[in-house]
């Protein structure tokens, strides 16, 4: 599946390069527009949770589960953060457009309650608001638009995506405007990305690209391997649960990003970005284990005010090609050439 996606992306990119000027987002190829591959449906439904893989890692959008339409990229991501992509008054307006059973609906609403417990962010069911998050399950996969969009901000949770709190919380984080933890600028100081253990496909390698260092900030919040926005340590592995694709460089106890809810630093980032919480003035400790968030006192939620700041996982990121070694790039080129030769022989 991933091989066919990469080949299609390459062919389209080559054709587009002859017709259009250089595009800073061209390396995303069809991931900017494509729908989830139908085979994702069966993968998610049959996912063995003991494998250490999360449902959102099985998609074929940008970084697996983020939908980033090109118009939104051009209008909102290239410069400074625009307040338009934030949810005003730290309130996400939502509507259930999908047909969820009682259990699924309970987990989705429970995910919202987790945000309300640990942050100033609130969720309000839509009445007649123009911009809102449409929570649906009519498409394949577990994925979401990143940040508040024009009209509908889509959050898709097919069967198998809402059978626990973890995935709905992860996708709602995207809808609030956050990217993945493993794409932070300082990632390589804390984890090693092992490309040799991944499915040999360029569209997989691009999931680990980094932003430009002059456009983002982490609010001085330490890298958090336990973040609910972190990929599992076996993401895209050729042998899931056996060959790691990410390995900690710092002391770490347990699995990567496998908690049931927000970590302490997940909640702190939200509260700094949306709630006016102060940025740390002294270095905070790098976590060595999964640390749950602490409930936010009611007094803090009533006095906090939304601010206009940016973070590594927010929408001001300028996308760049994955930073790989020379040997890794050569390997990727050989894979592409072999695929094109095989295609031509058919």
Task: Compute the CA-based radius of gyration.
Answer: 19 Å
Global shape: globular
Total helical elements: 9
- Give the structural class: alpha/beta
Strand content range: 5-15%
Give the strand order of the largest sheet, numbering strands 1, 2, ... along the chain.
Answer: 1-5-6-4-2-3
Please, what is the average pLDDT?
73
> Low-confidence spans: pLDDT under 50, at least 5 residues?
1-35, 69-82, 299-322
Largest sheet: 6 strands, mixed
End-to-end separation: 18 Å
What is the strand tally? 8
The topology string of helices and strands comes to HHEHEHEEEEHEHEHHH
Task: Give the fraction of residues assigned to helices.
Answer: 25-40%
Describe what you observe in this structure.
By secondary structure, this protein is of the alpha/beta class. Helix content is 30%, strand content 10%. The protein contains nine helices and eight strands. It has helices spanning 2-19, 39-45, 70-77, 102-118, 166-176, 202-205, 264-275, 298-303, 326-345; strands spanning 66-67, 91-96, 122-125, 132-136, 142-145, 152-157, 191-193, 246-248. The strands form two sheets. The chain has a six-stranded mixed beta sheet, with helices on one face. Strands 7-8 form a two-stranded antiparallel ribbon. Helix 4 (102-118) crosses helix 5. 43% of the residues are buried.
Concise summary:
This protein is of the alpha/beta class and 346 residues long.
